[in-house]
Amino acid sequence: MNVSAPRVAAAATPADTRRRSNIELGLLVLAILTILCAYALIGLARTATLPPGMAAYGGALAALAVAAHLVSRRLAPGADPLPLPLAFLLNGLGLVMVNRIDYALIARGQESSLAPAQTVWTVVAVGAFCATLVAVPDHRDLDRYRYLIGVGALALLALPSVPGIGATINGAQLWIRVAGFTIQPGELAKLGLVAFFASYLADKQQLLSAATSRLGPLMVPPARAFGPVIAIWGVSLALLVLQKDLGLSLLVFGLFVLMLYVATGRPAYVAGGAVLFGVGAWFAYSAFSHVRLRVAIWLDPWADYQDEGFQLAQSLFALGTGGLAGVGLGQGRPDFIPAVATDFIFSAFGEEAGLLGTTGLLLCYFLLVGRGLTISMRCRDGFGTLLAAGLTILFGLQVFIIVAGVTRLLPLTGLTLPLVSYGGSSLLANYVLVALLLRVSAAKRPPGATP
């Protein structure tokens, strides 16, 4: 796949731009109605009446949606109309489920205020979406600050390891405490790494694509071309050693290898990455007890059901209880699952909405990933193509890893479900990600391109 040549596409007419904006607005209205229906069902399940604050809740959602739409319409005319409504729908359904979890925890006598905090973060995240479109008028501006962005991303990754501000929660050192707030800087660092990788790979695409060495009957790139893969492999292992974060380590390495494949089309890099992943996995399993523990839980959560295997076992029980159609929104017991608002919110949906509900949720993710890849393929410059592809890979890979973890396809990694799980840093970063996708999709034709 050659990403260096500019794409040729017909310029969007004012009528096309208006049509796309109207489609986006119509889909946002549909998203708000879907969210309000889910909110109403949970209220009816609790008290047999509509929630008393439903009108205010709907008005606040509408205000946020209209604000995001108007900024998108003004600053990114002609952008793809699907990513923002899909992100807003996922975010809204997540808010509804976090609110539902609050009710369940309070009913058990526990104090919980997750929903108000997540609502505030939603407002902040939509503000970050708008600010990104203002601050990045052209995605190619990011290409000019490649090394500054790369150094900034590494600095953000290292912040939790700095004494005095770093915080360890649930055994992982991923957070910093600033002015009473707990922030996960790695969420924003991942976006910076995508921009850096995209710029680097677009610049070195021809060198990395050249197959000048022979490996048996196959022609492969020269050995020095595998240097970046080894370097990122080392960074991912360092993250595992210093911060005990299996999820972020896996995400960073997988992201780079897949972006490298998109840039070059060379399966040799994927094969080399798979070998390095195997070596790294063996090292991590041998060196770190928490990795061995997660593998043991994955292989047999029932062996230590009352302790370490309890979370995963409860997740599987919830999914099994939900069956095909679920027990009904507001009628399950999500409070039986520890960390249900973060790591296991997909299981809460599985219990109350069933296989049909979780399939609908996954279809929203598939659509968002599909639109991201479409934006990448339609982009007219190599950097934009790789930037959109990298952002989409980052998003999709995280969804796959967390869903695979809670369904026992893979060991648990501690990642959260994008836009749905409780967590301000993740929510903010994903709205910035959506804004960057819209910016790439609205890019004008580069100077000198064939009309």
What does this structure look like?
- By secondary structure, the protein is mostly helical.
- It contains 16 helices and 5 strands.
- The chain has helices at residues 14-47, 54-75, 83-107, 114-135, 140-143, 146-158, 186-203, 205-209, 227-243, 246-264, 267-287, 289-299, 310-322, 345-378, 382-406, 424-441, and strands spanning 166-169, 172-178, 181-183, 213-215, 218-220.
- A 3-stranded antiparallel β-sheet has the order 1-2-3, with no helix packed on it. A two-stranded antiparallel ribbon has the order 4-5.
- Strand 4 and strand 5 form a beta hairpin.
- Helix 2 (54-75) packs antiparallel against helix 3 (83-107), helix 7 packs parallel to helix 10 (246-264) and helix 9 (227-243) packs antiparallel against helix 10 (246-264).
- It is globular, with a radius of gyration of 22 Å.
- Mean pLDDT is 85; it is low at 4-10 and 445-451.
List the helices and strands and how they pair.
Layout: H1 14-47, H2 54-75, H3 83-107, H4 114-135, H5 140-143, H6 146-158, E1 166-169, E2 172-178, E3 181-183, H7 186-203, H8 205-209, E4 213-215, E5 218-220, H9 227-243, H10 246-264, H11 267-287, H12 289-299, H13 310-322, H14 345-378, H15 382-406, H16 424-441
Antiparallel strand pairs: 1-2, 2-3, 4-5
Helix pairs in contact: 1-2, 1-3, 2-3, 2-4, 3-4, 3-14, 3-16, 4-16, 6-7, 7-10, 7-15, 9-10, 9-11, 10-11, 10-15, 11-12, 13-14, 14-15, 14-16, 15-16
